[in-house]
Amino acid sequence: MDMNYRSFIKLSVIVGSVLAVVWYMPEVIRFVGIVFSYLIPFIIGLSIAFVLNVLMKIIEEKFVSRLKVGKYQRMVAFLLTLITMIMAVVILVLLIIPEIRNTFTIVSQNFPSFLKSIESWLSTLRINDLGLSDIEFNWESLMDSAYDFITRGGGGLFSTTWGITSSILGVLINMALGLVFSIYILFQKESLGRQTRKLLHAFLSEGAADSILDVGALANEVFSNFIKGQFFEALIIGILCFVGMTVLSMPYAVAISALVGFTALIPLIGAFVGTGIGVFLIVMVEPIKALWFVVFIVVLQQVESNLIYPRVVGTSVGLPGIWVLLAVTVGAASFGILGILVAVPISSVLYSLLRRAVDRRLSEKGRNI
Prior knowledge:
Elements: H1 2-23, H2 25-62, H3 73-123, H4 127-130, H5 139-187, H6 189-203, H7 206-247, H8 253-263, H9 269-283, H10 287-317, H11 321-364
Helix pairs in contact: 2-3, 2-5, 3-8, 7-8, 7-10, 7-11, 8-9, 9-10, 10-11
């Protein structure tokens, strides 16, 4: 009787909580948004720590452990990880920035002749036949319109600029706080793990705590392998891009290939960013080859999406290629860039849990399929 009474109380509390959340849904969403805004630096810190930990773990186990630096092993591993990441970014910048500067130099030097060629081309058109010779520009009216825009829209332009500046400043502050938080996580990850295990075992049953820790360990392994697969896939794309551009005798092969490989780490947008900058560099030197570069990148993206990504990333997380394609498609349609980023590792975790459940049920039934 006492057990039924307690079950009734628990069920009443759950039902009442659900009804309260539904009834006050706008307030709940607003409250969750406020809490989430406060937690953004910590979420960024967790993300940075997780990504850096993949490289730092390799450096610490493969290299630093042999140096016998004692209690400074973690600090040396972190510094080497940070130096490696900074060097990768610096090398990329040193490859790309000089080429962009040279392109602007070429454009500035050839700009007068470029204008003359346009003027010559326009002069060959039969403007009179098109009825364009009667068009006249009222420069005084245009100046008045420009003055009115500046005087009337100056306040709005200032407020917009201030808003953009504040947003950028807020992002930089969150990134800085996140970086500091990630350093604390990386230096104390074992202590945080012990505290989490103690907390779960203190307030949950033994089976529930072990199940949560088991799922957490699986998710950690899958997401770590996913990050490794992403970097390996970006490296393959960069190499294939360099080989293709070299075979097609396209300019800036090294710089553009490095950029395409780096931006391949960014889901969805990365391909367009790398291709856009590559087209800009090539079109200023050899416009025809810029068109062929776009065709080449489109073909490369198709190969990457349908062959390389499912095999490399799917194999690294233990997810068959067909389910990788399905996960990416559903994730992109549902949650955009974030969906593309987390769809594969989340699907891999669910796939592994389902496979365990199926094997356990078949084992209980004594069947081996």
